[in-house]
Amino acid sequence: MRPEALFQKEFTIQGGDFVNAGESSCMIRNTLREIGVDSDIVRRMAIAAYEAEMNVVMYALRGTMQISVYRDEILLTIDDKGPGIQNIDMAMQPGFSTATEEMREMGFGAGMGLPNIKKNADVFNITSRVGNGTKLEIRIFLDGKKTRK
Amino acid sequence: MKIREIVKACDLQLLTGEKMQDREITGGYVSDLLSDVMAHCKKGAVWITLQAHPNIVAVAVLKEISGIVIVNGRKPEKDTITKAETESVSIMSTERSAFDVTGQLYGMGLRGTR
């Protein structure tokens, strides 16, 4: 059985709300800093959280983002209600994006979001159901090891 | 190099962060793609961009960017200013282009932080 999280917090993300976009990620970053997580790990989690949050804002109706701190790892899960992803392999390709022209003009839709998340995570899982939503699971280990059974 | 030094030298308009002008700048990064900034801009940098919408503040907070210079005379939205004041993010603006401002800062000794 999984031990209970030392710390856990959930945030609601509203699809299309570009004004408040990024605030949940900022709160996650501040919280991790306050509880004394190593600054490099905070930085990596902040990048992953931001990209995941922006994906919900840009593509989904709404979503929840939950941060859980365990003794040996930090887990971030993002669960959204939205169109889902047709082809995950394609979505993972750097440079691939389905962003609108308007989003691109704002500097989004570079096709770097999911690759940035993967790069900063120790474990990254993505599952999606078309017409239903997408779920991300991002883990960063606290003991500094990149791989672990 | 401090914020107040680049404001003076490059004749930038200081829009937020009046009290943060002694913040140290350790390098620079130029990009209008937010994910690119998230991936490559380093802590303490000055970020030169033409983006002026509120989300640039979140990027600056998450990456611990020392200041944002908005170029080409673009004016940030009101929400951008409000957020920047709340989050203690320093925003400057200029009529000049990214090329010109970056060139001048490079000449003053600042380097890319990638």
Keywords, please?
A: alpha+beta; Heat Shock Protein 90; five-stranded antiparallel β-sheet; 5 helices; 5 strands; 34% helix; B: 114 residues; five-stranded mixed β-sheet; 37% helix
What can you tell me about this protein's structure?
The complex is a heterodimer of chains A (149) and B (114). Chain A is of the alpha+beta class and 149 residues long. Chain A has one domain (7-141): Heat Shock Protein 90. Helices cover 34% and strands 28% of the residues of chain A. Chain A has 5 helices and 5 strands. Chain A has helices at residues 23-34, 39-59, 88-91, 101-105, 113-120, and strands at residues 7-14, 62-69, 73-81, 123-129, 133-141. A 5-stranded antiparallel beta sheet of chain A has the order 1-2-3-5-4, with helices on one face. The radius of gyration of chain A is 15 Å and the shape is globular. Chain A starts with 6 loop residues before the first strand and ends in an 8-residue tail after the last strand. Chain B is an alpha/beta fold and 114 residues long. Chain B has one domain: Udp-n-acetylmuramoylalanyl-d-glutamate--2,6- Diaminopimelate Ligase, Chain: A, domain 1 (3-Layer(aba) Sandwich). Chain B is built from 5 helices and 5 strands. Chain B has helices at 3-9, 34-40, 55-63, 78-86, 98-107, and strands at 13-14, 27-30, 45-49, 67-70, 90-93. A 5-stranded mixed beta sheet of chain B has the order 1-5-4-3-2, sandwiched between helices. In chain B, strand 2, helix 2 and strand 3 (45-49) form a beta-alpha-beta unit. The longest helix of chain B is centred in the last third of the chain and has 10 residues, at 98-107. The radius of gyration of chain B is 12 Å and the shape is globular. The mean pLDDT of chain B is 96. Chains A and B meet through helix 1, helix 2 and helix 5 of A and helix 2 and helix 3 of B.
